[in-house]
From TrEMBL:
<comment type="similarity">
    <text>Belongs to the glycosyl hydrolase 1 family.</text>
</comment>
<dbReference type="GO" id="GO:0008422">
    <property type="term" value="F:beta-glucosidase activity"/>
</dbReference>
<keyword id="KW-0378">Hydrolase</keyword>
<dbReference type="InterPro" id="IPR033132">
    <property type="entry name" value="GH_1_N_CS"/>
</dbReference>
<dbReference type="InterPro" id="IPR017853">
    <property type="entry name" value="GH"/>
</dbReference>
<protein>
    <submittedName>
        <fullName>Family 1 glycosylhydrolase</fullName>
    </submittedName>
</protein>
<keyword id="KW-0326">Glycosidase</keyword>
<dbReference type="GO" id="GO:0016052">
    <property type="term" value="P:carbohydrate catabolic process"/>
</dbReference>
<dbReference type="GO" id="GO:0005829">
    <property type="term" value="C:cytosol"/>
</dbReference>
<dbReference type="Pfam" id="PF00232">
    <property type="entry name" value="Glyco_hydro_1"/>
</dbReference>
<dbReference type="InterPro" id="IPR001360">
    <property type="entry name" value="Glyco_hydro_1"/>
</dbReference>
Amino acid sequence: MTHARRLPEGFLWGASTAAHQIEGGNTNSDWWEFEHSGIPYVKEPSGDACDSYHRWREDMDLLAELGFTDYRFSIEWARIEPAPGEFSRAAIAHYRRMVEGARERGLRPMVTLHHFTNPRWFAERGGWAAAGSDELFARYLTAAAPIFATDVAHACTINEPNIVAVMAAAQAALASGQAVNLAADPPAPDEATTDALVRAHARAVETVKSLAPHVSTGWSVANLVCEALPGSEEVAAAFRRPRVDVFLEAARGDDWLGVQAYTRTLIGPSGRLPVPEDAERTLTGWEFYPRALGDAVRHSASVAAGTPLIVTENGIATDDDSRRVQYTTGALESLADAMRDGVDVRGYFHWSALDNYEWGRYEPTFGLIAVDRETFARTPKPSAAWLGAIGRTRVLPGEA
C-alpha cells in the first residue's frame, strides 16, 4: 500500500547530463585521447555523441515541456582552457548562453564545473596528483566565472571524485602491466589523487564564493551502498572508508552534498562479492536494486551530518522503459521513506536526460529521451513524461 508525499517548496526536480557524454567533438580532452588509445575497455569512441553542443536548446525545450524545473549540466574545462593559461572566450560565451537559455525556459541550472574529463595538457603534467593541480583548477574557475556569476544558484565543483581517484589507480595499474577489471573489481582510489581532489574541492569552493557569493556549492559522491552480510560489518566499513566515506567527510560544512546511487555492493568476509546469480541485472551488469537510493542518502546524512543533500544522479541502464519506471518508482519510494525519517534532501536529478556516451560505449541506455545515432532526433520515452509529471504535481511516490 502506498501514499504520496508532497515535495517541499523549492525542491529541485531535474535531469542530469555531462558535457563529454553528450556534446561531441571534445578533441582536447584526455578522454578523447583515451578513447583512441586502443585499450580494450573502450568499445567505441564518443565521436559526435548527441551533438548537444549544437542542440542544447532542443534538449532544454524537451525537459521544460516535460515538466522538469531543473537541469544539471557540466562545462568542459578542455574547451574553456585548451592550452595552459589560454582561455576561449567563445567557449565561455557558449556555456553562458546555456545558463541564460535554461532560465528563459524556466529551468534552474545546476552547473557542474568538472565531470571526469580534463584538458590533455593537465593530464600530461600528471593530472590531479601533480603539484599545483588545485591552483590550476582555481585559475580555470576564475576564468569561467562569467558562466556562473549570475542566474546560477547551485554549482557542483567535482563530479564523483571517488571515481576519479579510482580511475587514476586503474590507469597506474594498466601502465605497469597489471590486469584491471573495472566492472567487477575496480581498485581502491589512488591516495595521492584523493588528497589532491579534497584540496581542489576546498579551493574551488573558496574561489566560487569569492567570485559569486550567492552560489550554493557542493560536490557529488558515488555512494556504493556497501551492504554487509551478517558478521562482515567491519569488513564493509573498511572497504567503504577510502572509497566513499573520506569524500563524504570532506563535504561537512558545505552548502550541500550530492548523492549518486544506482545499486548496492555486497560485502562478505573477504570483501566485495559478485552480483547474486539470480538477480536481475541492468545493461551495465549492475544489480537491479531501486532501494539503493534510500540507503545512500541515509548513509550520506550519517557521515556528513548537518549537510543538506541533493540527489544529483540516480537511474538505470535498460532498453525496457517499463523497467525504468519500475526502478525509479522504487527509488523514489525509498527516498520518500528517508525524508519522512528526517533526512534533509533538497532535490532529485535523474540520470540521464539523454541516451548518451557511457564512457567507452553507447549500449547502456540511461536516458529519459532516446537519441537517434544517425540523425540525432530526440524522442522522449514514456518514463520522461511520467517523471516530468511529478515536477508539475510536486507529489512524490512514498511507501507507507
